[in-house]
Structure of Deoxycytidylate deaminase:
Amino acid sequence: MKFKPETLMDMAVLVSRESKCVKYQVGCVIEKDGRIIATGCNGTPAGALNCCDVSASKGWDMSKSADRLKHREWSDVNEIHAEMNAVMTASESVKGANVYVTVEPCNQCAKNLVQAGVKSVTFIQSKSGSGVFMSKHGVSVYGIKTCLLIG
């Protein structure tokens, strides 16, 4: 079955809704040769406390910059990004695969996706500017609109 890019991105939006992060819910779908080979969302390793649980226990309010900073520091140590979650759980190589992720990969994920040999990365929301890095390294980068709303 050949999926349209918009359909794959809609799936990534749906996967993002499984994230327990209080700040960003990011979803990722990896497609290769017309098959979905992996999905992932940002979150903690299996069995660890989720971001929403930690945030509630600490009383973080994401409308306050000090609490957003605390969240970022906690997240940098404890959370796995959606792209890496999908790559790590893929049942086969992602080399040559097409990645659909709701938010442009951060610089760390972009480097890992390039190294993993993905063919293309498509995202809805441009954020980090990592598309330039990926393009320089032979990865096709696309922006896309979707009919589903992130959130």
Residues 120 and 140 are 4 Å apart (CA to CA). The chain has six helices and five strands. The domain at 5-143 is CATH 3.40.140.10 (Cytidine Deaminase; domain 2).
